[in-house]
């Protein structure tokens, strides 16, 4: 079929509805209501993707659809399993972004088993199960992207639940890459340093933020929009497959 010249209004509508002449693109993002997840939803929407938010609270912007659940609960998937097919109906390209996370501290010797279990539930087991649920909708050209951390490949004291779960997340990404062999679906794990988000500002006073900003060679916090841009780049470039990408502004090693 030959395609004639589309009007500017029609092109605008295609972009806003997440549609192209080749089909419909859907970015399914866990935790899209705040921080990196919100910046990612905004950027993908501006680039013509439909947004599907998986979180405890609704995302009212970007014409998003919402699947509400709490990933910290062991049987969270019961809330969405029956709705997933309808939410992804018609999608020819899906970008699944495992953004939601749990940052709990404590050393190996004093962290509670409950804190480790909660970290593993949100940071590892939920992405594991969600990838399984979305697999039938991952057509060639789709991607599965994971939000890791600088602490996915190194450790600091007194943060063992987070470090352990984020190390394991890279293993999940790499295993997913191998198990998607031949499908045309690619994976990546983006590992940010300290990102300027409401969560970070809620936990740190201004003096602490200034100190954290000095821990990289650029002397500032990473912006959530910068991580969103990297996630969009990964979604659009299947050569980035099974890859770990560090985004930490040149972390100063100590």
Keyphrases for this structure?
254 residues; single chain; alpha/beta; 8-stranded mixed beta sheet; globular; two-stranded parallel ribbon; 8 helices
Describe, in plain words, how this protein is organized in 3D.
The structure is a single chain. It is globular, with a radius of gyration of 19 Å. The termini are far apart. Helix content is 37%, strand content 19%. The strands form two sheets. Strands 1, 2, 3, 4, 5, 6, 7 and 10 form an eight-stranded mixed beta sheet that branches. Strands 8-9 form a two-stranded parallel sheet. Helix 4 (113-134) links the parallel strand 5 and strand 6 (143-147). It has helices spanning 8-16, 35-46, 84-87, 113-134, 160-179, 198-203, 206-213, 224-236, and strands spanning 19-20, 23-30, 50-55, 65-68, 91-98, 143-147, 186-192, 195-196, 222-223, 243-247. The protein is of the alpha/beta class. The chain is built from eight helices and ten strands.
Outline of the structure:
The protein is α/β, with parallel strands linked by helices and 254 residues long. It has helices at residues 8-16, 35-46, 84-87, 113-134, 160-179, 198-203, 206-213, 224-236; strands at 19-20, 23-30, 50-55, 65-68, 91-98, 143-147, 186-192, 195-196, 222-223, 243-247. 35% of the residues are buried.
Please state the structural category: alpha/beta
Overall mean pLDDT score? 90
| Biggest beta-sheet profile | 8 strands, mixed
Rg, rounded, reads 19 Å
Please trace the helix and strand order, writing H or E for each element: HEEHEEHEHEHEEHHEHE
Helical proportion, percent range: 25-40%
Strand residue content = 15-25%
- Through-space gap between termini: 60 Å
Q: What best-fitting shape do the alpha-carbon axes yield?
A: globular
């Amino acid at each position: 079929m030959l395609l004639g010249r589309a009007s500017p209004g029609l092109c605008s509508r295609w972009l806003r509805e997440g549609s192209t002449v080749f089909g419909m693109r859907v970015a399914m993002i866990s935790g899209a209501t705040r921080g990196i997840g919100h910046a990612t939803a905004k950027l993908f929407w501006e680039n013509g993707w439909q947004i599907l938010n998986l979180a405890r609270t609704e995302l009212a912007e970007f014409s998003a659809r919402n699947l509400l659940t709490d990933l910290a609960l062991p049987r969270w998937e019961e809330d969405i399993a029956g709705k997933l097919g309808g939410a992804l109906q018609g999608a020819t390209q899906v970008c699944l972004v495992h953004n939601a996370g749990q940052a709990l501290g404590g050393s190996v010797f004093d962290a509670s088993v409950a804190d480790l279990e909660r970290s593993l539930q949100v940071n590892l087991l939920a992405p594991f199960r969600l990838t399984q649920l979305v697999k039938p909708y991952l057509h060639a050209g789709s991607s599965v992207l994971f939000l890791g951390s600088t602490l996915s490949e190194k450790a600091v004291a007194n943060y063992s639940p987070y470090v352990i779960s984020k190390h394991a997340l890279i293993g999940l990404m790499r295993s997913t890459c191998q198990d998607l062999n031949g499908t045309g679906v690619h994976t990546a794990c983006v590992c940010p340093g300290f990102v300027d988000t409401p969560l970070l500002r809620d936990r740190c006073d201004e003096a602490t933020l200034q100190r954290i900003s000095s821990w990289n060679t650029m002397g500032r916090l990473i912006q959530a929009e910068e991580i969103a841009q990297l996630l969009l780049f990964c979604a659009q470039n299947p050569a980035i497959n099974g890859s770990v990408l560090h985004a930490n502004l040149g972390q100063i090693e100590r």
